[in-house]
Amino acid sequence: MMVTEDRMIINIRTATARVQESGEYQWLPTHCLLTPSEQRTLATLLPLPAECNSGEPAWFVLPLAGFTALLRCHRDGSEAHIVVYALAATDYRACHGDATAIIKALESVPKGHPLDQIEISGLTRTAQVISAILAEGDAPTLLGAAQALVDGGKIHLQAEEPVPMERLTPLWNLLPSRQRATLKIATYLNSTRLLMDLAAGPTAPEHAWTWNKVGDYPEGDYEKSLHQAATLNDNDTIARLLGRGSRWDIIMLGLALLAVLAAGQIMLAATGWKPPPLVRPIIQEKAP
Asked: Whole-model pTM above 0.90?
């Protein structure tokens, strides 16, 4: 099977924080290129030491207003040590929200190496590629998980250690690009305090679908169309499905339309214009 890759260079800003169990945090002075506003936005989302793993570091992906933060976290004694990699939201959308490819590129950078740009290689998702993903993995689970996330559901993977990003990559490659750019994920989180869309850890949040049950998620239009297009080698339909807007896009479009209608009503009211009656009165002619 021929596999092609999309390559893209994106700008990265880095920062390092230490968080106490009380929630108090300190941004270390070196390489802290986040703005004060961005630091405040992240403050309540930084994991606490008890929520982190003391061995292998875990990754968090947090799409926020104006930028996306990728956090590399682990417990360091009584503190959580967190390295933040921030990229503009426009760059994240331009690379199709491919968090798994970005993290793979970040992990390949030698420790201590100065970092302001990375080159990422993302999979070009064709019907052949989607078909291969379903053939090599547990197709019912992958399709059910994809439909659940598209519908706005939450998924939990039971784990005592951070799961490698490679385990999430097959599912990630079945999701629409705009959907990927809005999802919050964590490869390990020992808590339900931070509500993630896709997370691994020892405790499943309420109402989340567990990985061993998500294959029973009710079949929806997205997974059915994706599976059918992959089977028929229909690249046009695959491109349309993977390029579809997210639920947030639909909500924002609806709000924009409401705002336009409201503004139009206000402007018409200000001019004193009134719409003509729907039923014109009947004018009776006088007899001569």
From this structure: no
